[in-house]
Amino acid sequence: MKKKKSTFSKITMVFVWLMIIITVAGVVFGAVSALGF
Fold first, then answer.
1. What is the pTM of this model?
2. What pLDDT does 30 receive?
3. Is residue 36 left, alpha or beta, with left meaning phi > 0 and alpha meaning psi from -120 to 50?
4. What gap in Å lies between CA 26 and CA 23, rounded to an integer?
5. How far lies 37's CA from each of 7, 14, 24, 28, in Å?
6. How many CB atoms are closer than 10 A to CB 7?
7. Which pLDDT value is given to residue 4?
8. Rounded distance, CA 14 to CA 28, Å?
9. Which InterPro entries would you find in this protein's record (predicted)?
10. Where are the beta strands (DSSP E) in the chain?
11. Three-class DSSP category at 9
12. What pLDDT sits at residue 35?
């Protein structure tokens, strides 16, 4: 059973992934900055 994804569903998924990536990048950047590299 293959259900076609709606445009809204695709946009939501992209936004969720962007948020996760930005959050992870922010945490990593914050840790690197705190260590003074």
1. 0.62
2. 94
3. left
4. 5
5. 42, 31, 18, 12
6. 7
7. 75
8. 21
9. DUF4044
10. none
11. helix
12. 86
Give how far the C-alpha of residue 16 lies from the chain's centroid of Cα atoms, to the nearest Å.
6
29 to 9, 18, 19: CA distances (angstroms): 30, 16, 15
Instruction: Specify the pLDDT at position 21.
Output: 98
For 9, the token pair is 């569903």
Cβ-count burial 8-21 (b if 16+ within 10 Å, e if not) = eeeeeeeeeeeeee
Q: Which two tokens stand for residue 29?
A: 């950047």
- Here the tokens at position 7 are 């445009």
pLDDT at residue 1, as a whole number: 61
| Residue at 20: amino acid letter | I
